Amino acid sequence: MSATTSTPRRFQQGLNSLLQSRVAEVLGYPHGVDRYLEVFNPLWSVKEVRAKVENVQHLTADSVTLTLKPNSNWQGFVPGQFVQLTVSINGKLHTRCYSPANSLHREDGTIELTAKAHADGFVSRYLRDCVRVGDVVTLSQAGGEFALPEQRPERVLLISGGSGITPVMSMLRTLCDEGFKGEITFLHYANRAQDMIYAEEVADIAARFGNVTLLRAFADEQEGGELSGLFSSEHLFNSVPDFAQATTFLCGPPPMMAAVEKVWEEQGITDQLHKEQFTLATAAVDDGESAEGEVRFVRSEAQVTNDGKTLLEQAEAAGLNPQSGCRMGICYSCTCKKTAGKVRDLRTGVISSGDEEDIQLCVSVPVGTVALDI
Ligand code: FES
Description:
binds FE2/S2 (inorganic) cluster, alpha/beta, metal ion binding, Elongation Factor Tu (Ef-tu), domain 3, 9 helices, Rossmann fold, 3 domains, Ubiquitin-like (UB roll), 6-stranded antiparallel sheet
């Protein structure tokens, strides 16, 4: 264990107060105190959560599971929430959202993030291929509304697809650690058995805990899950007949989530469905819009011809580097002021009023010419 991680918490908090003082700020000008601290130890920071990679595992061929030990600035999380993880790749900072998958009651102070490396997942592929034990990454504090309520529900249904398993895995592990007595059904969708992250552990939990029922559904009919194919209402009616009585937590790819939401809507029980999406779901638009006009970045005095992509992509194509994180509308780190023009929200298809307003660059496309305060 390094000297930093063994520093007593009280000493580190005292050190933080000292370093956050006005005197330290003046002495650290113009680079900030953190720039000097990290020369001594990359984990030292006045306010930032920095975390050391303590373990790297590959539970499936296309995923990576990182065990991270955050510094004392970390304030903890609620199962289901996400954090923004920032890494430097070729000298440029990249941020993405991941949900801690570990139990709230893990005692060693580490958190576990699992990323599925998609073919076009620039950051997730970097995490899988390049991150090593001992590396240091930056985290945000945890956030998000998708969270296990403090008052645990009596009946829990967890539905996940693909890497959407991570936040519900945290819920499952937490409830089991707490000796939760209610019924838990864990319904998971994957293409093939070998693609299911945490497969062994979930099966082991279901074998050890009589109140946990595991239902695995594989899209490939050849694979041997308890169910087969994509999500269908029959899965619920036949295999989870009391689903309407359950508090349900759902996380997975957009088509699966839409199919699940439809059933809850038809049953009039959407207030019992809690959901988190880690892929951008776009609304169908059929208004014959074509990309036209310009995108003007007022502060930078840059301008590009609108190519129909998101404002975040167009800003980056213009050589700008606006703050961003999840790139799917959940973390709000890309929020900026639009000073003129209209934009369409990719998730809802709704076109903004055209007045001055805050917009999220990653989920907005310009409708005609727009001006942004970047
Ligand atoms: S980058 Fe997260 S909301 Fe836009």
